[in-house]
Amino acid sequence: MKSFEISSEQASGVPLTVRAAGAEDAGRVAAILAECFHPVEGPVGFLQPWIQASLKGELANRLRTPPAFYSCLVAMVNEHPVGTVEVAMRGLPQPWWIPSFGVRDRLAYVSNLAVSPAFRRRGVARGLLVEVEHLVRRWNQATVNLHVMEHNQGALRLYRSLGYRLERSEQEWPFFGPRKLLLEKRLGP
Ligand SMILES: CC(C)(COP(=O)(O)OP(=O)(O)OC[C@H]1O[C@@H](n2cnc3c(N)ncnc32)[C@H](O)[C@@H]1OP(=O)(O)O)[C@@H](O)C(=O)NCCC(=O)NCCS
C-alpha cells in the first residue's frame, strides 16, 4: 500500500502511511470507531466499552476472512493508527423501514470513515479517501458512493472538496428526523 506525507501546516511534517488493516488491527480500529461514532460524552456514552467490544468482534470476523472486493484501510502516524475507512463492492444499504426485494446492484461503497479527534484537520481523511479511489479503480469501477448525515457539515465539506456530488436525499426514519445524503464521485480516467 502506498504511503504519503501529511501536507497541511498543522501537521509539522508528521509522516502518515496508509495500509490495509489485518485481523490484528481489529481492536485498534474498533477503538477509533467507538471514539468517533460513540463518544463517552454522548447520551449513552456509558455503553462505549460494549459497543467497542462488539465492533471489534465484527471487524475481526471481516478481516480474518475478507470477502472479495472489500478492504479496511488504516492511517498510521509513527506506528500509531489514527484513522480508518472501509470500502466494499455491495448493495446500497436501505433505510430499515423500506423493504428490500431480492438482489440489489453492487457498487463501490465507502463506510466507517473516522479519524481520531487529536489528528483531525491534517489531511488524514483526505489521504484515506485518495487510497480508496486507487483501490476502486483497480476493481474497474467508475464511481464511488457513500452516505453522510445532512448535519455532518465537516464531512460534507470534505466530500465536496474531493468531488463527491449529491445523488439523492433519503429519510432515515419515516416522516421525520434527520436526512441521509447519498453522494457519488465519478472517477476520472
Ligand atoms: C469527518 C472526518 C473523517 C474528517 O477527518 P479529517 O482527517 O479531519 O479530515 P481532513 O483533515 O482530511 O479534511 C480535509 C478537508 O475537509 C474539510 N473538513 C474536514 N473536517 C471538517 C470540519 N470539521 N469542519 C469543516 N471542514 C472540514 C476541510 O475542507 C478540510 O480541509 P482544511 O482542513 O484544509 O480546511 C472526521 O472529522 C471524523 O472522524 N468525524 C467523525 C466521524 C464521521 O463523521 N465520519 C464521516 C461519516 S460520513
From TrEMBL:
Top-level lineage group: Bacteria
Classification via InterPro entries: Acyl_CoA_acyltransferase (IPR016181), GNAT_dom (IPR000182)
CDD domains for this protein: NAT_SF
UniProt domain N-acetyltransferase: residue ranges: 16-188
Any Pfam family matching the protein: Acetyltransf_1
Molecular function terms, GO-annotated: acyltransferase activity, transferring groups other than amino-acyl groups
UniProt protein name: Glr2217 protein
Organism field: Gloeobacter violaceus (strain ATCC 29082 / PCC 7421)
